[in-house]
Fold:
Amino acid sequence: TVTDLRSDKGVVRACMTTREDIFPKCIKDPQSHRVVVPAGEKIEIRFTGVKPGRYAIALLHDENNNGKADRAMGMMPKEGYGFSRDAPVRMAPPKFSDAVFDQGESTQRLTIRMRYFL
Structure:
């Protein structure tokens, strides 16, 4: 479940990976699980075909649906973002170790809160 979207514009892009070396840009992982859903009041994202392992999830509220994270002055995110385990964002994206969770054989439900800088 995704919470705290500021608008229903655009889409929410979700990416789940086991690759610590590229997180949160898991789009670079051909083995990652990716889902795109319309933004709205109630958002549920379902990843299918997930094998047991250690994963982290990164979300982007792509409000203009241009397929990328827009930034102000080349640095600060203009669009919303969120991470599994509510991993903290300080002066940089969170580390994989802050967002990682163990996925077993059974279905797991997570709540990810969207955050906005601007």
Q: What stands out?
A: The chain has one domain: 2-113. The mean pLDDT is 95.
